[in-house]
Amino acid sequence: LATIPALGVLAGATRTLRLGTFVIANDSRNPVLLAREAATLDFLSGGRFELGLGAGRPGAEEDNRKLGMPFDSAGVRIARLAESIRIVKALFAGETVDAPGPYYRAAGADLFPRPVQEPRPPILVAAGGPRLLALAAREADIVTIAAPPLEAAAGFEQRVETLRQAAPERFDHLELSMNLLAVGGTPHPIVARGIGVEQLLRSGSPAVLTGSPDEMAEQVQRSRETLGISYVTVWQAFADQLAPVVERLAGR
């Protein structure tokens, strides 16, 4: 489903669940139009929206080709994302934006409606490499650590430390997130392509939960205590397997 209209329907069908994009490819959105759509979703949901942005997932070259857009170097895409975030933040704050580029040009742009959340809807950035992690540390409210599927806890620790060093004054205010790659022996199908299931389960990655519901709950708790990860995203097919884990973690 197309993200923005689908979230608009969900905003009207729910009352307490938060809604978000995980994650919009920055290359495919104009930041002025995106800010207006995000503010509208925040308004319609009563302040339950968060905006997730990224510089391009693995394999995004094909996505750009289908849209007739070039797929630039990582450095250019990250710089463009940084510029986009600055514009979106300014518009969320009610400022009139005059953006001179180099990637976006907005002459006297303003925003209507205003977001409901104060000071603005949270911004989530998915980041894996040092440059993108540094940008996320400086600009995001939520950082999803995009690590390779077989990366063990030590690799996650190094990425968290990169965040800390990039913006030490903001680090304690960041919410850290990870996307589960496997639950109870069942891998995400996209991740499992080209990787043996047993290899994935033996990787020691914090994003791979194995064992009984009690053991998986302990793994999630350990990630929060040792890595500071308190925000976990879950593929919908894992929902039933993860339900008893959520029940054990509720209120902890």
Would you summarize the structure shown here?
The chain is an alpha/beta fold and 252 residues long. The chain is built from eleven helices and twelve strands. α1 (3-13) packs parallel to α2, α4 runs parallel beside α5 and α5 crosses α6 (153-166).
Describe the protein's architecture and organization.
With 252 residues, the chain is of the alpha/beta class. The protein has helices spanning 3-13, 31-44, 60-66, 74-92, 130-139, 153-166, 168-171, 189-192, 197-201, 213-227, 239-249, and strands at 19-20, 24-25, 49-54, 97-99, 106-109, 123-127, 142-145, 175-179, 182-183, 186-187, 208-209, 229-233. The strands form 3 sheets. Strands 1, 2, 3, 6, 7, 8 and 12 form a 7-stranded parallel beta sheet that branches. A 3-stranded mixed beta sheet has the order 10-9-11. A two-stranded antiparallel ribbon has the order 4-5. Strand 6, helix 5 (130-139) and strand 7 form a beta-alpha-beta unit. Helix 2 (31-44) crosses helix 4 (74-92). It is globular. The model has no long low-confidence stretch (mean pLDDT 92).
